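thread: overnight batch results

M.L. [08:02]
morning all. the overnight job finished for the chain we discussed friday. pasting input first so we're all looking at the same thing
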Amino acid sequence: MPDVDRERAWLLTVDGAPQSYVDLDDPRHLEFEYVRRLGHVLDCAAEPGLALDLLHLGGGALTLPRYAAATRAGSRQAVVEFDAALVELVAEHLPLPEGSGVTVHAADARIWLGAAPPASADLLVADVFGGSRVPAQLTSVEYAREAARVLRPGGLYAANLADGAPFDFLRAQLANFGAVFGQVALVAEPAVLRGRRFGNALLLASDAELPVAALARRCAADAFPARVEFGAGLARFGRGARPVGDADAVASPEPPEGAFSVG
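M.L. [08:03]
and the structure it wrote out:
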């Protein structure tokens, strides 16, 4: 069940795992490492301050939509969150500021994406977990094609995934999105990419050149440094993997016990 700490800074947990962290006084403050990296992706996606159309699959406590509203005023944002009870809890305890430009929908992410207008988003962020796993319906090449259909030319897809060595799941995701988009990249801690531990990795995809240089600088200078893997290095990482269709898609692997828990 969701639980929230009642302070100006709120930590939302679901079944003991950290789900979202929100600082009501400073929506630009991003606490979790992977969310900080998503913030860097958003910062590098377009000129600073430029309003964008964003689609978020998975909402949590709306940490990233709040950040986007604060850093890119005038942006239009749609958030799709499957857990209707969570949507109600966040609306009651962590209401969005007036005029935020954020609309939240309690709906299934894959169904919503399939019905979304083509070329309607500049940035699509997928952060969907059923428990501690990415649902299988969001791990297929058909899903990647739907994401590409909804993005405008030059638009950017960013997904929060989780895996560990031997990276069968992550490599399959690279194959899926590499088959659909011209450019792909991964962002993760070096220890995760080297297979030393299970952890989060951001998958980025676009039909245009990805802002890898600017993103790499931001991620390397972060309080929680990460590496951006692309090009030949990423091709070696994903070598041999093939796209996975809906019929064979599986959820992301179960994380080791305690991997994402809070004390």
